[in-house]
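Exercise (ungraded).
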Amino acid sequence: MSENFTVEIISPDKSILKSEAAEVTIPSYEGQMGILKDHIPLITFLRPGLIIIKENSGEKIFFIEDGIVEFSNNSLLILTSTAKSLDSLERNSIDAIIKSSEEKIRKGEIDDKERYLLSYKIDTLREINK
Amino acid sequence: MPSLDDLKKRIKSVKSTQKITKAMKMVAAAKLKKAQANAEKGRPYSEKMQNIILNLTKSINDPENAPKLLVGTGKDKINLCVVLTADRGLCGGFNSNICKLAKTKFEKILSEGKELKIITVGTKGLEQIKREYGKYVIKKFSFKNKKQITFTEAETIGNEIINLFKQNQFDKCILFYNNFKNVITQIPQAQQIIPAEKNSSKEKEEDLTSYEFEPEEDEILEDLLPKNISTQVFKAFLENAASEQGSRMTAMDNATRNAGELVDKLTINYNRSRQASITKELIEIISGAESL
């Protein structure tokens, strides 16, 4: 029996990915979360971070800023408007995003929730750019 | 009887109109392909979003404390109608169909003694609604200079709706747009987005799976519902864009065909009167020769 389940990433204007995976790691709102086959049904939010999809042939990594995840009947559904494949991101553009996010934090006109999300965004992007 | 020259001019003018309509049809066909693909790609997102919300709704046991966006304010006094139309004309009954549906709804709302508020998106709809219901229009949007409507535009409208809701400006929100079925058929639709309409027939089919929520249901809903509004608006945009092009294509196809028929008719007329004048001249020559 295969140990795979289906993964779908959908953005408002297109379907970004549809494939089979053995394990998916998602940056859920309250911490990293690994999902294997036969996980119990789940609905949760995402914070900025990386989605790591382990397929038989290798790994696929996406950077996301927000989204909703639903897992049921061995199919994982990720709805997001911001998913970007890691290969398509360039160093310079990452730097620019980091800078603008830091700027926002410095201005201090945001609430705690936003600050929390932004700091995760910066950390993840820094990690990528290492 | 028009003179030969007049007929010639007429034929020429119809032919050049035909050229324009033909070109418009071609452009619409090319745009339609893209818009249709976009609409189809956008459908899964909004459908899945609806599904998740449906699942969430089922697991809420305490309707008293449920978010207002979902269950409504409990009143049905002020109705907000959002009418989505195109910015350009010459697309058959596209704009009129939406407006017709909207106007029947407006009438119903007013006759029931409720308050009416209108938001229009797109200039063509505004023109048609302004005449009778101008005083009810509270906001108008137009994305005329945008080449392609993206999620950002939908979000602007979504946020506007949510803001008004938070200020208790309305109790019920209805979205009017054309649903793209295929190139020839577009169905004008009225979709209620606040409070979220429950699809009772769908509920029965789905089995009740109990989900694990993280964070709590309420928190998820609080965040998800505003997003859903924007998503629904975006979906309406995509459907509308495809419908507009489809409608224009059929309209222009008809126009081209009509122009062709007209040219044929005029050409026959032209040939007949040309023949008539030749015959007349011949008769004159022959009778002139006979009298000599």
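Further reading is listed at the end of the chapter. For now, observe: Residues 154 and 235 of chain B are 9 Å apart (CA to CA). The radius of gyration of chain B is 28 Å.
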